[in-house]
Amino acid sequence: MRRVEHVMGFPVSLRVDDPDVPESAADAVFGWLREVDERFSPFKPGSEVSRFGRGELRRGELSADLAEVLDLCEHYRAATDGAFDVRLPGRPFDPCAVVKGWSVQRAAGLLTAAGARRFCLNAGGDVVTSGGPWRVGVRHPEHADQLCTVLELTNGAVATSARYERGDHIIDGRTGRPATGLLSMTVVADSLTVADAVATAAFALGADGIAWAADQPGCEVFAVDGARQVLRTAGFPTAPESAAA
């Protein structure tokens, strides 16, 4: 089974290699992601996120899903001493840095519940895999037609934060200025919820984010700093032929 749809502002591709998994499993995945886009987009005035950001909803009135997202946001804000912050002065409340990984990991759970054992779910370059090994390329931060490494995953997730798609869009909440200390930060973890949030939070921390991300439980890191130096943790699952990248 293979399907690609444009959801939440980026392409989402799904490949399932189990022949007995019904098409309804893919329908559930993309249906959930479309629901997330309606409920959690800060760009849609009627979404729950927008209403909460305007003060129309109090914490006790929120859905359990948004309450969970807020708890994750607060966890990473505290863990980075405010470098990662979804409530920036002069900007609307925007939890997208957590919502993406969280929602795609939830979608992967729907596939598992439907009986899928070998699949790859790629949401705009952030990937959840099961039953591999799967090979995942990490784009070079300065050359769109090149990869800086290829990794191999069996059951896990990988997320990259960088400046090449949206420019200086990640803000250091401590200064209110764009984070520019890194060119690229890739994190591998068991869950895309963790990998995506840690990658964004580490990028917001700048050069200090490399060691911080490496210290996060269950996380492996591949980073390119502002001086174009490549740093990786010993357990980063680099595919053998790209080990020297």
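^ that was protein a. below is b, sequence first then the tokens
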Amino acid sequence: MDRMLYTAMSGAKNAMDQQSVVTNNLANVSTTGFRAELQAARSVPVLGAGPLETRVSAVTTTPGSDFSQGPIEFTGRTLDVALQGGAWLAVLAEDGSETYTRRGDLQLDSDGVLLNMGRPVMGEGGPIALPQGAQVSIGADGTISAIPQGEGPNALVDVGRIKLVTPDEAALTRGDDGLFRAPPGEEGEPGVLPADETARLVSGALEGSNVSAVDAMVSMIDVQRRYDMQMRVLGNADENAQRANSMLSLQG
């Protein structure tokens, strides 16, 4: 009976954890540049004071992300960029560290600082600031050109260049903020990747999420059914225990 309860409880907990991952992916099916989170189950021995070598619990882990390319949609918006190939955009996280994202719907704040979801976009020398009211265009290599307000096309000047990197995606780690980080340095400091001069982007376009809504819905239904099955096993174990107690009480 004890083993039956442990097996069902472990399976139900694993299903709940899987459901949270699937739900998060499904919720971001329309999020620009989102990378689907992968899930896997592994066995973990149950530790305790008594001998529990036969007790093993199933734990859901997120070993990585799906880095496959998402669909490209052309928007015509000047500050929309879609990263090509393995290129990533460098942005400044809230803790001051450099992080990386494929999300390319950029904005400007009231001071002209180029932002990515409220976080400064990194350039060759730090965050990028653009002239107020200027007509802006972004080149394939990340170079930002601007025509000052009230000037003609001949006044076009380069005002900065977006830092693009091409990381080893398998080495990236996803943070709770949805941004990806490079491996830390030798002394534990936040990792910083070098700019890639060959990285390219497409201006006036956005890369969509690589989450398939159909696949996510199928996974959600499958996980829900497995959870219900484990709960039925727990219910059967409880009924069996009650019947056994009744039989013992009659014999006594």
